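Below is how a single chain appears once it has passed through the pipeline. First comes the sequence as given, then the structure the pipeline wrote out for it. We keep one example in the README because the format questions we get most often are answered faster by looking than by reading.
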Amino acid sequence: MKLSWKDAQTEPDYPDAMELQRIYLRVKYQGHHLGRQIMDFAMQEAKKSGVPRVWLGVWEHNYPAQKIYGCYGFKRVSQHTFMVGDDPQTDFILMKDMTEED
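Resulting structure:
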């Protein structure tokens, strides 16, 4: 997992937010609730930093990840295209409003 703020973000559109990137677990570690621990850690870091929003990009066909992010309160706000070789791919931009946290 990688957390990025300000100019370190991959998109310039959310300068007041934190970007959550590169959330990966090796297959043998999936299904052990480690993803939940990673997401909880990221949300704690966002709260500590005081950002009003957290955003991430998720591949349009990664339905399991989209479902998990939805459970954390992320909502689709935009999309962008990126290239994998000669193949254009679409990432959905998902945003979580941290001001709605308890």
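The radius of gyration is 14 Å.

See the next section for the split statistics.
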